[in-house]
Amino acid sequence: MRFLRIPLVFTLLLSLGACSTISGTVSGVFGGNDAADEGGEPVKQAQQTAPVSELEIAWGLDVDQRRPLSPYSFARPAVAGDLIVLAGQDRFAHIYDMQGSEVRRVGLQAASDSGATAMRDDLVVLSDAQGILYGIDPQAGVILWQWQMPTVMLGQPTRAGDDMLVQTGDNSVYRISARGEKLWSFSSAQAGLSMNLSPSPLVNGDTSYAVLSNGDVVALKSDSGDLIWRRQLLLDNDAVVLSELRTPLADPVLVGDVLIVSFYQGDVVALSASDGQQLWQRHLSLKSAPLVVGGRLFVATADSAVLELDAKNGASLWKRQMEAGELVGPALFGKGMLAADDHGRVFALNLDGQVTGTLNLPGRVDRKPVAVPGGVLLRNNLGGLYLIH
Asked: 287-318 pLDDT, tens per residue?
């Protein structure tokens, strides 16, 4: 059901009164200017000289007509050609056109919190809460194949040529063909307490990387799953409450030959992609993958900061401290980037850290926005899906 047909425009007015709906003052929205990194070294603050323009919601959808007190949703959409595919808590994979109209839906055996991945225009892969992996043709609205995993997948499949890698909650990685056939598997020790989000593997040609909930980072041969190297980054992860848990939520990324991995309520760690040697470490808590643009590395943290880091040594090149909650993103947004927080606040920034727009959405945002031509797709925990220009 669509709950927005007419585009809505949210403009941040540079006045104390207008900003009170977000944080009370303009300086509150953009944060202070006296920050230092964890070593006490001063950090260059991104100066706000760019005008704050409009963010537009082109359309919004109530995907699965969530009732009050229903479970939160963490599913993430995929774009296949001119179609959007998103699984819901109502046991359907919903298929929309780029104007936000539902064109068909496909029944699943259970609700879904997984991300979806488009392998081709006629093949999108996602999973449900019973651990069933589905290959769906969004053009025809049919299930092409199903494969039963040992447990659930909370990330999304990663393309590996014509195949895909799937990482499951028991710290296993599988290579699955586009026909739903298992080609190989890799397993590591299970962890204790975990969350309802997890990283997805990273494929870089002949080598694939996975960050596991037990603290292992592994490099595998993409064609066979054989172990190339393993690095243990969490020596003590016996948390009994979520506030003490350090766990990977963000996908790993590569900047040249530097592998960037991160742990929620923990650290960002840079490893040599070739042998796993640790290059640097920063105490920054991330919920989603960093953004890499032209060799530049951008992160959005759980303590409301957006930073550009030097991938060679981890130093902060600039920092924008927001008056916000736990951020996800940044995602590519035009020539800049976009981040959102767990209070439904959305921020657009340029690549120099200047805020260029903002808006408020209902609910919270826990999944990184998905970049699409002309904007981003953003999912909130209440079942809403938005296209933002």
From this structure: 999 999 999 999 999 999 999 999 999 999 99
Map 240-285 to HEC letters: CCHHHCCECCCCCEEECCEEEEECECCCEEEEECCCCCEEEEECCC
H helical segments located in the chain: 16-19, 26-30
**Complete domains list, the chain, with CATH:** 1-62+290-389 (2.40.128.630), 71-145 (2.40.10.480)
DSSP letter (8 states) at residue 42: B
- 18: pLDDT strictly greater than 90: no
Q: Is the pLDDT of residue 50 over 80?
A: no
Determine contact, residues 230/218, Cβ cutoff 8 Å.
Answer: yes
pTM for the full predicted model: 0.86
Helix (H) or strand (E) holding 172: strand 172-176
| Contact between 203 and 157 (Cβ < 8 Å) | no
> Residue 230: helix, strand or coil by DSSP?
strand
